[in-house]
From TrEMBL:
InterPro entries: 2-oxoA_DH_lipoyl-BS, Biotin_lipoyl, GCV_H, GCV_H/Fam206, GCV_H_sub, Single_hybrid_motif. Belongs to the GcvH family. GO terms for cellular component: cytosol; glycine cleavage complex. This is Glycine cleavage system H protein.
């Protein structure tokens, strides 16, 4: 059983959200997701300025095994992307909760994060 960081929130499509001190949110994929994908070789991220709703497709991550869509776990505007992933997609495998983040958002509704899964709930869903 994987132990997901307790300070993050999660969605069943395997993205995580960290609300930052300034009220913005950082988004990435979980350790469970990167392990299932295998070695990540390419990532396509959304454009800065894009407005996404919760559940909207935000990009694609490709591995040696498969390609998988990335979804916005919450609604908001993309304010930054992790440009380091363009040349170093393997960082997603090495540090999915740190340097392997995908994008940052300005949230439409900061309370929407409260509706996402806790680490305990997410880990339990992965064990099913």
């Amino acid at each position: 059983m994987s132990q997901s960081p307790a300070e993050l929130r999660y969605v069943s499509s395997h993205e995580w959200v960290r609300v930052e001190d300034d009220g913005t949110a950082t988004v990435g994929i979980t350790n469970h997701a990167q392990e299932a994908l295998g070695d990540v070789v390419f990532v396509e991220l959304p454009e800065v300025g894009a407005q996404l709703g919760a559940g909207d497709e935000a990009g694609v991550v490709e591995s040696v095994k498969a390609a998988s869509d990335i979804y916005a776990p919450i609604g908001g505007e993309i304010i930054a992307i992790n440009e380091n992933l363009e040349d170093n997609p393997e960082v997603i495998n090495e540090d999915p909760y740190g340097d392997g983040w995908f994008f940052k958002m300005r949230l439409d509704d900061a309370t929407s994060v409260d509706d996402l899964l806790t680490a305990e709930q997410y880990d339990a869903s992965c064990d099913d």
